[in-house]
Specification:
The protein has helices spanning 68-73, 109-114; strands spanning 2-6, 12-18, 21-29, 34-42, 47-52, 54-56, 59-67, 80-89, 97-99, 119-124, 127-133, 150-154, 157-164, 170-171. By secondary structure, it is mainly beta. It is elongated.
C-alpha cells in the first residue's frame, strides 16, 4: 500500500510499508535557493531528520528506508507530518523562487488570508518581494495592496510585485 503526503515547505513524501520497514521517497522542485532537509514531525511532539534532498533529474529527491521501531522511538509513527525546510541557503541568493507559504511573511490577519497559496518570492536584505502573474482579464491577487504594487515583465509575462519589510509590512514601490 502506498501513501502520498504533501510536505510543508513544498513537495511530496511517498510512503510504502514493507513489513517492519517503511520506504520513503521525498521529492520537491529544485528552486536553486539552497539545501533542503526533510523532517518528520510526530503528532505528539516527536521529530526525526529523514535527510538532505539531493538533485536528481531536475528535482530534489531523498530515498530512505526506516524501521517502524525507529519511527515509533522518535515519536513519528503512526501519525506524523513531513516538512522540507531550507537548511542552508546559497550565498547571495537573490533570484525568484516558489514560496509555498507566503502567508508566513506577514502578521496582518487580512493579508495572511489573501496570501494563501504559492507565490513567487525574492529576498534582498531586509526586503521580501512577492509576485503574481498580472492579467487585465483576471482578478488581482492582492486587491487591497493594488496601489502598492509595481508591474514587471518577466519571461514575456506581466507580474505584479509587492515589497514587504522584515516585519511583513507592505512597502510603497520605489519611485
Amino acid at each position: 500500500m502506498e501513501e502520498r503526503l504533501v510536505m510543508g515547505g513544498g513537495g511530496t513524501l511517498t510512503l510504502r510499508q514493507d513489513g517492519p520497514r517503511v520506504r520513503m521517497e521525498a521529492e520537491r522542485p529544485a528552486d536553486g535557493r539552497g539545501l533542503y532537509k526533510v523532517w518528520l514531525h510526530g503528532d505528539c511532539g516527536g521529530k526525526l531528520l529523514l535527510g538532505t534532498l539531493a538533485p536528481e533529474d531536475g528535482q530534489l529527491r531523498l530515498r530512505r528506508t526506516v524501521s517502524i521501531g525507529a519511527l515509533e522511538q522518535a515519536g513519528c509513527w503512526p501519525h506524523f507530518r513531513a516538512e522540507s525546510a531550507l537548511a542552508f541557503p546559497f550565498p547571495g541568493q537573490r533570484g525568484w523562487y516558489c514560496e509555498q507559504h507566503p502567508e508566513r511573511l506577514t502578521a496582518d490577519p487580512l493579508l495572511r488570508e489573501r496570501l494563501r497559496g504559492a507565490m513567487l518570492c525574492r529576498r534582498d536584505g531586509e526586503t521580501v518581494s512577492l509576485s503574481a502573474p498580472f492579467r487585465t482579464d483576471r482578478p488581482v491577487r492582492l486587491p487591497a495592496l493594488f496601489c502598492l504594487a509595481r508591474v514587471e515583465k518577466r519571461d514575456g509575462q506581466l507580474h505584479m510585485v509587492w515589497e514587504f519589510d522584515s516585519q511583513g509590512r507592505p512597502k510603497p514601490p520605489h519611485t
